[in-house]
Amino acid sequence: MADQTQRAGTTPQVPCARGGVPLLGHLRQLLADPTGFLMSLPSYGDLVEIRLGTRRTLVVCGPELVSQVLVKDHRPFDKGGPFFENVAEFFGNGLATCPDAVHTRLRRLTQPVFRREQLAGYSDLVGREIEAVTGSWREGQVLDVYQVMQELAMRITVSTMFASWFSGSQAGSGAVRETLGHVDTLVSGAFVRMVAPGAARLPLPSNRRYEQARGALYGKIEETVAAYRRGGQDRGDLLSRLMAHDEGSKDTLSDTEIRDQVMTMFIAGIGTTAAMLAWSLHYLSLDGDLDAEVAREAKAASSGPVALHDDLTRLPTLDKAVAETFRIRPAAWMFSRVTVTETVLGGYRIPAGSDVLISPYILHHRPDLFTDPDRFDPQRWDDVSADWARAERAAMMIPFGTGFRKCIGRDFSVMNITLTLASILKTWKLTPATTAPVTLQGRSIIEPRGLALRLQRRQFPLPRQGEAVTPR
Ligand code: HEM
User: Fold this and answer.
1) pTM of the model
2) N or C: which end of the chain has fewer CB within 10 A?
3) Which protein residues touch ligand 1 with a CB less than 6 Å away?
């Protein structure tokens, strides 16, 4: 494809998706039916132009081109574009939004806290929060699953970062709800800024709430960082690791840089983890046999009230279900880049300053990459870690991105999700509480809407597939 430009002797135009209208471009389609619109794009080719408002954006739809942009020839494609540039302002010098030029240093200074050997240490804090949330659940209760998972994901992310935030004087649902409200305001605001950047400058109440939420979180994080500096002890959490690593090194993160990394991790980690937990529970609630197998496995693997880090190697069925959820509902369904030099992509000459959008959702739903892609089928993942790694290398399965800007929290968040699901499912069976369909809403992340599940305490032994259920 690459030499098509030369062969033709002219510069071919990237095909433009149909249905764009003046001023709004394709925004209406993207907001009204995000996944339907995205899945119409590969029919134009591996590179297609859409317009977000008046802004031209190139959507990369094929795995080879995605691999070129993120891995093989990434230099012309820096962080930026519609998804990142309008949120960069509140991430400051955060790892997820910073330009490539400063990324290497920040990644070197933050990576050690997410090393595999550190993860076991955080899992006790994860267990504490799972117990805090599930401890009050009652037989027959109907959960607004996404809301509960948001609280749980937020508690896990905040507590693993700052072990003390929700304990002691700050314990109680008031502090949790307040922080969750701030994070939700920022995540919603980020999506508005992405699709309608001009709206962020208007004197709207939503923009004031956004500024207040940012100010409140900044203040709280700065206060906590200062207290850690004064206290000096290791609290076994991410912030202690970030600072311990800092000490003795010539190059260290300033307090403002630490604040920006913490803020980034809150925004990048909470909504995504909540959505993946909720989608996993949704799919398991629809498949009684799979759900029973996962529950049996979790019960056998873990003897305590919640699953522990050591139990993780004994949950193969759950691992497959989690991988399949990441394929079918990749929470981070799109992210962007901007070209910093002129380049050639898919045979098209792309000028510097072009916006480029990558959508894991498109790749994961291409029928030429995954048979029957809309079917939830954990059996696709025979040997999960090997199959997933292979699919990621081929840029077919990239829920955490790929290449040098791949999600730093990948293993941490898969651990948290697996521990949470194992802990819940060994004790509770969740079944749909209504017949109303669960729908998908696309904001910065793709979230389930209308997911109400009823709790039922498990009775073991559970019947195996095809076995008759004997009433007790
Ligand atoms: C289900 C959970 C998660 C999903 C689906 C997810 C997804 C992603 C994706 C797709 C990227 C790459 C974006 C790009 O290339 O432009 C990314 C980057 C990143 N994620 Fe996550 N993430 C998750 C959880 C987390 C958690 C728990 C944290 C931190 C506590 C985190 C922190 C980050 C950071 C800092 C980056 C930027 C990495 C870099 O540029 O070096 N994420 N994430």
Assistant:
1) 0.92
2) C
3) 95-96, 103, 107, 264-265, 268-269, 272-273, 276, 331-332, 335, 399-401, 405, 407-409, 412-413
